[in-house]
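Supplementary notes for students who missed Thursday's class. We covered one full example, reproduced here. Read the sequence, then the structure, then the short commentary at the end.
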Amino acid sequence: MAFRKISMILVSVGVLVLLGAGCAHLPGLGGKEAESAPQSTDFDDIQVPGELKIEPDKSFVYSSAGFRAGILHYTGYVEINSLVDYFSTTMTQQGWRLRSTFRSPKMVLLFEKNQKAALIMIYEKMLLTHVEIWVAPMA
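Structure (token representation):
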């Protein structure tokens, strides 16, 4: 009898956890807004919200003769649409031009500035929001 009661409690807790995880994909429920002070990155003209943390093992930056290119990977518990708004605003303030946006489970923003491009991908995976920033020269 006690085993059955404990099993029911565990099943109930499991269902609640799964329901909570599923709600992370609903607008406004999947994390907090990107509100804290921006933090600098390895690129002088790109900033990220303070809620995101760098993943050094997934990031790489190459520097040569006054130019930098590479990939920065960040994670945090931040709402996706809030990040899209954040990058659309701050990148424009830094002189980047938004060239295109793709909205799907993975949000993609493509920016251009002088002779370089920045691709920002935002997606959810394992209850965290991931942000990949790819910066490369344009031919």
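Commentary. The helical segments are 2-23, 80-93. Strands lie at 38-40, 47-49, 53-54, 60-64, 67-76, 97-102, 107-113, 116-125, 128-137. If anything here is unclear, bring it to office hours.
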